[in-house]
Design a protein that fits this description.
By secondary structure, the protein is an alpha+beta fold. It is built from 10 helices and 4 strands; from the N terminus they run αααββααααββααα. α4 packs antiparallel against α7.
Length: about 475
């Protein structure tokens, strides 16, 4: 008899260790050994609060405000709480479920009932208070698989929150850099319009003195109005960017405080991109995609286990009596225990469909994961190329500005000496205005591409910013 009991217990333990969840392996992908643009392989800079390296306290304050007040980020934080609650629901099934019930009622038994004793009143009250226990023995790992899937989704939601943090900080920096770039373009336009206003005044005086034709006045007027039109466009673009940044900061559209000028931002000498293989661990969107894949893998185990019977243990302990005064008497104690099982016999293909659904979802998420990884590699390479080319472009534009300033100086000298007409001067002015605007745009591109590079690399700064957002 003892041997039989040991055999049964061993069999039950063996069954309870069964799990139909497939063993998870990270998808094998061809990872490049280096980036297309040679870069330092250390990861120190990718782990710092890079926006502070730009040296603008206003930008630092704007990032802090966004981490505290941005509505998308707050929604993402609460979304993690939502998935934590779902995980609690799924994992609670791993434990016995205990509840209590009771009733007090009056009922009438049929007088012909054979189980009534002689002289028993067919109309009688009935009272009961009981505690009930129900526990599903997870023989096939169904409940554990559901718990694993919910846990992976919980972790994925946390990575999604970090992805929101990454996009938010980068978005704030990009918007602020563009505002300072447009501010600088507006300064150039204002300086140019003042110069052209003075040139127009001189042209009118020369025309009135008979020293030049009306054509020169017309050309000066056109140049002046052309610059005024540029100012009008810039005055439209700046509030639009301020409105965008205000929403990122979690407030109604308003004027944004300014800090350092675009040409006063500090630029790191080199941004280490690290090894491509490290990107799989640094990018929160890649980690989120993998956790979604892990969750789908666990769901397959639950779908497979659904083909097998559910075995549950049940128990009851309480008191029951037909007289209220005897309800808590020793003779009113009631108890019961036992086991039950439920086996699906015919479901019209529902279980098979659910299994196929879970397998299809896993395959879909597998290819989505691979696409996210490939996209991440592309973004880093694009950002490295864009940042390097932007820095080279600034150098080129600075040389162009110096050359055209000299060209304008010489054009004015030849104009006053009567060796050329005003059209040459006007051409030089227009070129100078254009290249000064192009230089400002190139300076903005250097810093915006730097932001794109840090965003594409991910790294420890995302975790630090995420922790700051949670503390607020």
């Amino acid at each position: 008899m003892k041997t039989i009991k040991i055999t049964i217990c061993s069999f039950l333990i063996l069954l309870s260790s069964c799990n139909f969840e497939p063993r998870y392996h990270r998808p094998c992908m061809e990872v490049p050994t280096s980036w297309r643009i040679q870069s330092d392989e250390t990861t120190t800079c990718a782990n710092v609060d890079w926006w502070e390296e730009l040296g603008d306290p206003v930008l630092n304050a704007l990032v802090d405000q966004a981490l505290q007040n941005n509505k998308d980020l707050q929604a993402a934080i609460w979304r993690v709480g939502e998935f934590y609650a779902r995980y609690q629901v799924e994992s609670s099934l791993l434990y016995p479920q205990i509840d209590s019930d009771g009733f007090a009622l009056k009922q009438r038994f049929p007088e012909s009932a054979s189980f009534l004793p002689l002289g028993f009143d067919p109309i009688t009250p009935h009272y009961r208070i009981a505690f009930n226990l129900n526990y599903e023995i997870d023989f096939w790992g169904r409940v554990r698989s559901l718990s694993h899937a919910a846990c992976a989704k919980l972790l994925a939601s946390a990575e999604n929150r970090r992805t929101v943090v990454l996009s938010l900080v980068s978005g704030v920096a990009q918007a602020y850099i563009l505002i300072r770039q447009l501010d600088r373009e507006l300064e150039v336009a204002y300086a140019t319009v003042e110069d052209r206003k003075e040139y127009l005044r001189i042209a009118k005086l020369r025309f009135e003195a008979g020293l030049t034709s009306e054509i020169e006045v017309t050309q000066a007027t056109d140049a002046y109005e052309e610059t005024q039109a540029s100012i009008t466009v810039l005055k439209e673009l700046i509030p639009i960017q301020e409105n965008l940044l205000s929403v990122l900061l979690g407030e109604s559209p308003t004027c944004i405080v300014r800090g350092s000028a675009i040409d006063q931002f500090r630029l790191p000498f080199e941004v280490p991109a690290g090894l491509p293989s490290e990107l799989l661990e640094r990018r929160p969107d890649i980690r989120e995609a993998e956790l979604q894949l892990i969750s789908a893998n666990a769901a397959i185990g639950a779908a497979r286990a659904a083909f097998f019977p559910k075995v549950s243990l049940t128990a009851l302990l309480g008191v029951e009596s037909f007289q209220l005064k005897h309800l808590f008497a020793g003779t009113s104690r009631a108890w019961a225990y036992g086991a039950q099982y439920l086996q699906q016999i015919f479901t019209g293909g529902r279980l098979t469909g659910e299994l196929r659904l879970s397998i299809a979802q896993k395959q879909e998420l597998l290819f989505q994961y691979e696409q996210v990884v490939l996209q991440a590699f592309r973004e880093v390479n694009d950002a490295l190329v864009a940042h390097r080319q932007a820095k080279e472009l600034v150098t080129v534009e600075q040389r162009r500005v110096a050359a055209i300033k000299e060209y304008l100086r010489l054009a004015w000298l030849r104009y006053y000496d009567g060796q050329t007409d005003y059209l040459t001067v006007l051409d030089a002015e227009r070129q100078l205005f254009t290249v000064e605007i192009e230089l400002t745009k190139a300076q903005g591109s250097v810093f915006s591409s730097l932001v794109d590079l840090y965003k594409s690399l991910g790294g420890g700064w995302v975790l630090e910013a995420d922790a700051e957002a949670l503390q607020s």
